[in-house]
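pinging the channel bc i need a second pair of eyes. not urgent but kinda urgent?? the chain im working w is below, pasted from the shared doc
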Amino acid sequence: MRPLPRQRLLNAALATAFGTAFSLCSVSALAQATGQQQRAGDSTLPAITVNADTEESATGRVNGYLAKRSTAGSKTDTPIVETPQSISVITADRMDAIGATTVKDALGYTPGVSIAPFGADSRYDWISIRGFDGYAPGFYLDGLPLRNNGTWGVWKTENYGSERIEVLRGPTSVLYGMASPGGVVNIASKLPTAEPVREIQLQYGNDARRQVAGDFSGALDAEGKVLYRITGVVRDAQLPGGSSRDDRTYIAPSITWKPSSDTTFTLLAQYQKNRAGAYSRIRPAAGSLTPTRIGTYIPSDLNVGDPNFDHFNQDQKMIGYQLEHRFNDTFTVRQKLRHGKLEVDYRALQSPGFVPMDPANALSAENYRYLNRGVFGSQESTSSVTMDNQLQADLRSGDWHHKVLVGLDYQRTRIDQYTYSSPFGTPLLDIYAPVYGGTIDIPQPYVNGVSRLAQTGIYLQDQIKWGDRWSLTIGGRYDTAQSTNYSRLDGSTQRISEHKFTKRAGLVYLAPNGLAPYLSYSESFAPIGALDPATRTPFKPESGRQYEAGIRYQPPGGKSLYSAAIFDLRRKNYITYDATFMPKQTGEISVRGLELEATTELMPRLNLTASYAYTPRAIVTASSRAEEIGKQAMSVPRNRLSVWADYRFSNGLKVGAGVRFNGSTRGDAEVVAPAKVPSYTLLDAMIGYDIDRWTLALNLRNLTNKTYVANCAYGYCYLGTQRTAVATATYRW
């Protein structure tokens, strides 16, 4: 599709949406006002226990660990047991209990999710879902994409500003457009509430972590038609080793106007400023996974970068709104829009390798003492506009109920990028007596230009219920995507247009005893944005498809949800490179597995969350390089298990403990053979006390400070996160 017709389509959609809104004589949006914890008046604070069973919204606050509704799997307010695809919801209470300060921390007890594909990394929340990258093309915030282009300018989120984190596993393009075949992560922001929220939180932890946070919400008028919320964080911290700072400032104000019971409008914004070093634990495989030829290892606490050179500074701003109006019992319209701006200044020394100082003597200790490191840097400026327009129709005829959703979404991203890299030009690092600083040569850029991506999607979904027992979801979507890449290095411009139709279907049976077996099929796509050098025509979008069968069990009236799913997932048409390094669209990866998950209250005040993933197959089944076939593209252990339990005594004391097991692998592309990346088991713990208006907690992750290799790839290995300890004091009134 050419830019002119696309722009006309977009303009027509905007005019229709805004015209409808203003014809209502009010601007309105979905307030997502949720059942909140009672913040004052009772010295025992019963509303902050995890035993409450209230959930008024599929996007808002959940008291406790069990969410029963979600929009992630349908873009409508739908019970999770009626969604024919795997969903996990990590509530704010659960994040607090396990001491999760980042998104990947929060997902550490979620089936099918690896939170350490690159080990400890201060820069990003890298994760993989069902064996595929879950961080590109980006997370979602309130159902709108935080799009990245596979570069280093990646949007960050703040856990303290989140009500819940949702993971929808498997292809999701019918709902979300371009996406990874493994699934998507959606983060729901804290939004204004009618019930007062008044909270101050103090944190102190290792690595000189000092943080102050606040959350305030309530009504601005006597009738409760205007609500506000403001959430903020100020953090002064250091990265492990105490050599670089890790500071953050975050503020997220929002206001909701509810002129009537049928209409709401929420205006929301956020600003985040990060000033930090660039900390990772990358090592050569020889000296980390296996000993060097002389039997030595690189010290695990060594900073292989340079704190005098490395930094990762990021500023991001967002502003947008959410609009909802219900015309009658049949028709509801919704619109979401957000504009964002992101600036990143990143540079670091990386890719360390031993320098042979005595090449004539292979067993000389000097050959395994000094590291050379490459220099890398990127300055990026990203601006984006995302929008989603929806019309929902609830139609009834006898025992049949149709919830029809028609939508048009649009996203536009512009990235101005200046990136350089060189394997040379840095001082050698003595691993036993490191000295930092010195002259570092900055190379010329290998990328200096502007890339633009615009995508428009039209989708249709029908959720059909027959009586109280059967639920059928069917949907389809058509996307057009246009990418433009301009290079300042040679003055060239490349323009590519792509389009793709995706579909989805799923059937659920809702038994009276709480059992809900289901079957589903779903698809995904991702534009490649490159030309085939042989034909000078655009590559087709890569695609994904999944068959899934599962069963959920939600005992009537209980506080438990159990789920089991088996799936067959394929990524197709991705680019591989032959022996002459020519790109070929021949790649295919097959993943099959079983996932189990439980969230339950075993007895009053005793809560348990558990997950298990069994993945016997995650291999390349087609490639232009024969040696890749039969190997894993990304490392996926055959077995992954996690369990968290906590108990709250009647006197206010609370204790919790967790275990996370990750099975052995052979690393990405299995290039570390014959040595395996060994399995590892990590322990977490929590102890706390609730007294009057105070909630106190001490969380320890990797309790025993275990040193472990999280993954390896192409001659390098990544050590996992060391022990963290964070003490939190929260005061509510």
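so The first helix runs from residue 3 to 23. and The chain has a mean pLDDT of 90. — does that match what u expected or am i reading it wrong
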